[in-house]
Amino acid sequence: MKGATILETKKAYTSTKLYNDVDTLVKVFPFIEKETIGESVLGKPIIELSIGKGPKRVHMNGSFHANEWITSAIMMKWLEEYVRGLTTQDELFQLYTQTTLSFVPMVNPDGVDLVLNGLPENDEARAKALMINEGSLDFSQWKANICGIDLNNQYPANWEIEKERKIPKSPAPRDYPGDAPLTEPEAITMANLLKKGNFDRVLAFHTQGEEIYWGYMNKEPLEAEVIVKEFEKLSGYKAIQHIDSHAGFRDWFVNEWGRPGFTIELGNGVNPLPLTQFEEIYQKSKGIFFSGLYM
Q1: CA dihedral 4, 102, 72, 167 (to 10 degrees)
Q2: Of 36, 149, 154, 166, whose CB has the highest number of CB atoms within 10 Å?
Q3: 162/109 Cα distance (integer angstroms)
């Protein structure tokens, strides 16, 4: 099995594909711990994988946004490379003893499946999604969860600012922050994970732009700049300290805990990024994954 790839991630990465790949990895590498930490609106599991026994606690996630599903596929390829290396490479095994990785590859399974598979079977959800999308069956630009709430605008870090200035004032394919912070089960699940996780840093993977956002309201520690410089060096991505954005998962982490938090925009182009970019994105960004563990 040495050198062989178990997962086929260079394809449309639905929630079903993710769950099958997770089960395959857990079976082959039983030191991976799997937990269902919550459910989506339509009852699909939100899976956390935990790897490592170290005191440093690192969290990573992907597919907060539905049409950014390629992040889940790329993350799972990173993960396979990592867990395979743990069994053969001493330097990687040191990471296992130094770091505990919390890994949530798909925060928004309903939204991902809407983009890739079209309307769900649930009658109420079908009707609502179709209405929000103004009758169109093209969901390629959908970022929200199945209820039309942007999950990365759901966190209590100056949420009121985003609520006031966002153009959608009702559920929409993108950008609507909801009627209040933390109304959606997916956002609540991730908030609960942060509250109990005591993470030293978080990395949230999105697309696109080849940029890394790392500051928030000057709450970020000095350590964050040291880490992001390593990310920048290994990936060629551009580190940007401040952007005019609030209410995001990373924003809340930095604001609430004062620890390093990073939003990494994988790839370049127009979302959803095509699978033809998969290998280039993977090669450029995998250094961020590994340095996120060792820094």
Answers
A1: -170
A2: 154
A3: 24
Q: What is the DSSP letter of 277?
A: G
User: Of 57, 60, 32, 52, which Cα lies nearest the Cα of 94?
Assistant: 52
Q: How many residues does the chain have?
A: 295
- Listed as ranges, residues in the chain with pLDDT below 70 are 1-4
Edge to edge, the sheet with strand 201-207 lists 33-39, 45-51, 99-104, 56-62, 201-207, 261-266, 211-213, 238-240
Model pLDDT, residue 269: 95
Q: Let me know: does 102 contact 48? Beta carbons within 8 Å.
A: yes
Q: Is 265 in the active site?
A: yes
| 157 backbone φψ class: left, alpha, beta (φ>0; ψ -120 to 50) | beta
Are 102 and 3 in contact, with CB atoms under 8 Å apart? no
Looking only at the bridges linking them, the beta strands covering 211-213 and 56-62 are unpaired
DSSP class of residue 135 equals T
Among candidates 266, 223, 264, 204, which has minimal Cα distance to 240? Answer: 264
* Topology given in CATH for the domain delimited by 15-112+184-294: Aminopeptidase (3.40.630)
Residue with tokens 């946004």: 65
pLDDT at 3: 56
Helix (H, G, I), strand (E, B) or coil at 28: helix
Per the rule left: phi > 0, alpha: psi between -120 and 50, beta: everything else, 267 is left
Contact by Cβ (8 Å): 144, 150: yes
Cβ atoms of 46 and 39 within 8 Å: the answer is: yes
Alpha helices (H) in 135-273, listed in sequence order: 159-165, 185-197, 222-235, 249-257
CA dihedral sign of residues 231, 290, 277, 242: negative
Residues 6+ apart with CB under 8 A from 266: 70, 71, 74, 205, 206, 207, 208, 210, 273, 281, 285
